[in-house]
Specification:
By secondary structure, the chain is mostly beta strands. The protein has one domain: Methylamine Dehydrogenase, Chain H (7 Propeller). It is 5% helix and 40% strand. Strands 2, 30, 31, 32, 33 and 34 form a six-stranded antiparallel sheet that branches. A five-stranded antiparallel sheet has the order 1-7-6-3-35, with no helix packed on it. A four-stranded antiparallel sheet has the order 8-9-10-11, with no helix packed on it. Strand 22 and strand 23 form a beta hairpin. The chain binds cobalt (II) ion. The site of cobalt (II) ion has 6 residues, from strand 22.
Length: 491
C-alpha cells in the first residue's frame, strides 16, 4: 500500500533548540485581564473584533506532570481589537474535572492521551472515566461562546467575562455526554456544520447542521463499518467528507490500565484510507447513498478545504505517514522531531462517476493548522495559510507562518525562528474587499527569549515584509490548539 511517506531529507541546520521549545509547555495558572500596552508596530484601526483561542493551560496538576499536552485543562484566551488597541483576558473552562482536581491538588482522572492517575495499573484498571477537558477549540456562533472537545458536549461561556455557564445541549438535542466535535465548518450560506464520532466495531457518524441562532436544525446518524478516529472533516455544497484512516485499536492495554486510549491506536500501513462521502441533508445531487473510495495509508488530523468541480470533489489535507507513538514511559518534551513523520500538504482528486481517487503531494514543507478565507469554505479557493516548519523540508517544531498560492508555485514564509514558536494562524478578511488574500493573519508566538507570548499580526498579502504589529503579553500562553475570530468586540 502506498503511504503518505516522503522521506526526503537534507542535512539542514536545526532552526531551534529543544530547551527553547520546551518552555512553551509550562502551565499558566493565573487568569489575567488587561489592556496590552507593550506593542511593536501599529495595530490596524480597521481590525475590529475578538480572537478567541483554546488550548491546554495546565500541563501539570500541582506539580504532577500530565503525560501528554492534549490531556491539559482547556484555557480560553481572548484578544479584543478595537480602535487600534488590544485587550487580553484568559480564563480556564471551569469543568467538573478542573474544579475537582484544583480542589484536591492532584490528578484524579485518566487522560485520553496517556495521563494516568498515580498508583500504576492498579489505580487505573477498568477506569473508563475520562475527564472532559474542553480544550480543543472555541467558537462564537448564534450568540453562544462554546468551548469544544470532540468526545463530549460543549461548554458554554459568557463572552464578556469568560465565565463558565455550564454544558450546552442545544435545547435538549444533545444528550448527556454526547459528542460534538471540535472541528465545525461554517458554510458561507450561514449554516454551521459539525459532526460526532461514536467509535466501536461499527462507527456511528452524526452530522449536525445549526442555524445562525445557534440551534441544531438537523441531526442525522450514519453507520459505517470498522473503527474510526476522526478529528476533522470537510464540507462542500452537497457533501460531508470524512477520512477513515487505517487504524488498529487494541483496547486491552487501556482496559487493564497500562496504557491510554490514544496509545492503543496504530496506523496499519498495508491498508488503505477510506474516503467516506455523505450527501448533505439538502443535497441537490440525485444520489443519496454514502460513497466510499480508497486512497493511501496514513493519518490525517486536519483538512484544509474541499470543493466540487462537476462530478469531482477536490480535497486538500495535511497528511502523515504514521502517528507518533506516545509511549507509556516517554516524555513528550523530549520528542525527537527529526525521527517523526512530518505533516504535509496533499491534494485528493475524487472522481465520483469513475469511483477513482488521485492523490498528489503539493509541497514538502512540514505544516499544520491550515486556514483559508471564511467565504471559501466548501468552495474553490486559491490561498491557504498554515503554521509550518522554518526549513522547507524535514520535521521540526512549528516556527513559521506559511502562505500557499494553489494557483501557482508561489509560497511566502514569515518565520519566528530561532527562538519563536507559532500556533494556529487565523485569517481575518478586510471588510468588503473582493480579494481573497486581503486581510490579516494573526497568530500567537511563544518567544523563548523572554518566556512570554506575542500576538503577531501579519499582512496576508505580504508576509515577508514582517509583522505589522507584535503585541507583547505580560506572560506566556502554553502552546494552544484551535480558535476563531468574530467581528463582535467583547471587553
Ligand atoms: Co484539530
Amino acid at each position: 500500500m502506498q503511504t503518505f511517506g516522503n522521506q526526503k531529507t537534507l542535512p539542514l541546520e536545526k532552526s531551534y533548540s529543544q530547551k527553547d521549545w520546551q518552555g512553551g509547555y509550562e502551565s499558566l495558572t493565573q487568569e489575567y485581564d488587561y489592556w496590552i500596552e507593550d506593542i511593536e508596530g501599529k495595530i490596524p484601526t480597521e481590525l475590529q473584533g475578538t480572537l478567541f483561542r483554546n488550548g491546554p493551560g495546565l500541563l501539570d496538576i500541582n506539580g504532577q506532570r500530565l503525560h501528554h499536552p492534549f490531556d491539559g485543562d482547556g484555557m480560553i484566551s481572548r484578544i479584543t481589537f478595537t480602535k487600534g488597541r488590544a485587550h487580553f483576558r484568559n480564563s480556564f473552562v471551569k469543568t467538573e474535572g478542573y474544579l475537582s482536581e484544583q480542589k484536591a491538588g492532584k490528578i484524579l482522572y485518566r487522560g485520553v492521551f496517556g495521563t494516568q492517575k498515580p498508583g500504576g495499573w492498579l489505580a487505573n484498571i477498568f477506569d473508563f472515566k475520562i475527564k472532559h477537558i474542553a480544550n480543543t477549540n472555541v467558537i462564537y456562533w448564534g450568540k453562544k461562546l462554546l468551548a469544544l472537545w470532540e468526545a463530549a458536549e460543549p461548554y458554554l461561556l459568557k463572552p464578556e467575562t469568560l465565565e463558565t455557564l455550564g454544558k450546552e445541549y442545544f435545547n435538549g438535542v444533545l444528550s448527556t455526554g454526547e459528542a460534538f466535535s471540535a472541528h465545525p465548518r461554517i458554510d458561507p450560506n450561514g449554516k454551521l456544520v459539525n459532526f460526532a464520532i461514536k467509535p466501536g466495531l461499527k462507527t456511528t457518524i452524526t452530522i449536525f447542521e445549526l442555524n445562525t441562532n445557534g440551534e441544531i436544525i438537523s441531526k442525522q446518524n450514519h453507520q459505517i463499518p470498522g473503527f474510526c478516529f476522526i478529528h476533522d472533516f470537510v464540507i462542500t455544497e452537497n457533501y460531508c467528507i470524512f477520512f477513515q484512516n487505517p487504524l488498529e485499536f487494541n483496547p486491552l492495554p487501556f482496559a487493564v490500565g497500562i496504557a491510554s486510549a490514544g496509545q492503543c491506536i496504530k496506523v496499519q500501513k498495508n491498508q488503505p484510507t477510506k474516503i467516506i462521502i455523505i450527501p448533505r441533508k439538502d443535497s441537490q445531487k440525485s444520489e443519496s447513498e454514502i460513497k466510499t473510495l480508497e486512497t493511501n495509508a496514513g493519518f490525517i488530523f486536519h483538512h484544509v478545504n474541499a470543493f466540487e468541480v462537476g462530478n469531482k470533489i477536490i480535497i486538500d489535507s495535511i497528511c502523515y505517514e504514521s502517528l507518533t507513538d506516545v509511549e507509556p514511559n516517554s516524555d513528550y518534551r523530549e520528542t525527537n522531531f527529526e525521527a517523526n513523520a512530518p505533516g504535509q500538504l496533499w491534494r485528493f482528486d475524487v472522481n465520483l462517476s469513475e469511483q477513482k481517487v488521485q492523490s498528489q503531494l503539493l509541497d514538502n514543507r512540514s505544516c499544520e493548522f491550515p486556514v483559508i478565507h471564511p467565504h471559501n469554505v466548501g468552495k474553490p479557493y486559491r490561498y491557504l495559510y498554515s503554521a509550518a516548519a522554518h526549513n522547507p523540508i524535514g520535521n521540526a517544531p512549528l516556527q513559521a507562518i506559511w502562505k500557499v498560492d494553489l494557483a501557482s508555485e508561489k509560497r511566502e514564509v514569515w518565520s519566528a525562528a530561532p527562538r519563536g514558536f507559532v500556533g494556529e494562524p487565523i485569517f481575518i478578511p478586510r471588510a468588503n474587499s473582493p480579494q481573497e488574500d486581503d486581510g490579516w493573519v494573526i497568530t500567537l508566538v511563544y518567544d523563548a527569549g523572554h518566556h512570554r507570548t506575542d500576538v503577531v499580526i501579519l499582512d496576508a498579502q505580504n508576509l515577508q515584509q514582517g509583522a505589522i504589529a507584535k503585541l507583547h503579553l505580560k506572560h506566556h500562553i502554553p502552546y494552544g490548539l484551535h480558535g476563531s475570530f468574530t467581528p463582535e468586540t467583547f471587553i
